[in-house]
Structure formats: structure tokens, C-alpha cells
Amino acid sequence: MIIDKKEIILKNGQKVLLQSAMEKDAEMICHHRYITSFESYFMARYPEEISLDVEGMKERLVSIEKDDKDFTITAFLDGKIIGDAGVTKIRNHMKYKHRAYFGISILKEYCNQGLGKYILDIALEQAEKNGFEQVELGVFEDNLGAIHLYKKCGFKKVGIQPRAFKLKDGTYRDEVQMVHIFN
């Protein structure tokens, strides 16, 4: 589905356009995912694991556009992607249709500017309108800024997956599992 466009102003005064990523944005989305995975180990993949398959990304974006529940929220600053998020159903099976998963990436330069909060607020509002009863996510245990934001937006910690992530240096990080349940 396509969400309504919204212009926001970051804490630094810059104007950002939030809208759904479209097929034409596929190459920029691939590049954004590569850069954000390079900037932080908090992303699920290392840069070399990011698919730069632009055609595959185009197909994925068209599929999301046609979906009645899944959506993306992409932050554009002067035509450049600085943040990207998605809400997708966990599974299409009847027993799962009430659940959605949330993922987000923001360029390091634009962290702590309020962008994550704007995106998350829109994502939760739209997810509830789309009939989801809860939104779930997983976050690195040491990503304290993200955990703080999620709690601020109503997410509750529901569990820990020990050693969920193994880094290249051989160390492990637990994953904090969180859920936002709509009333």
C-alpha cells in the first residue's frame, strides 16, 4: 500500500519528505541499506550481505505497493534517502494476520534528529488502520537509543533471544524482542 506523503522538520531544521518507496527508488534503497549496514553493526546484515539486486528490489517495492496491509516509509532529503522503514505481516496464515513486523534504518548523520520517532509514529498509526493488532521488532541489546525510542512509542520488552547475533570478531549480542499491542 502507499501511505500519504508527509513533510516533517528535523531538530536541525531540515525539511524531510516521508512517503512510500516506489519502484523508481529501488537503486537508492539498495544503496541506503548498504550504507547503513556499513555504518553500524546494529543492522541485521553486513554490507557484503546486502543485495544490490535493483530488479529484485523493484519487484519487492511493486509487491508492497499492491499489498493491502504492508507498507514502507522512506525519508527523502533533497531527493536523497536518509531513512527507510517497513511494516510487513509476519505471515499470511490466518493465525498470524493480526501481527506485523517493523524494521528501520537511518543514516548515522540523521540519527538523534527526531526522524525515527516521526517514522515510528506514522508506522504505528498506519499499522493499526490496516488492521494489525500488534507490531513486533527485534533490536540489539546494546542499541540503547533504539530501545529507548521503542519504549517511548509504547513498545514493551517481551523477551530476549540469547546470542542472536554473532559478529565478525566472534562476540555475540542478544536480541531484545519487543511488541506494541493496540488496544
TrEMBL record:
Coiled coil: none annotated. Residues 30-183 form the N-acetyltransferase domain. Transmembrane segments: none annotated. This is GNAT family N-acetyltransferase. It comes from Clostridium gallinarum.
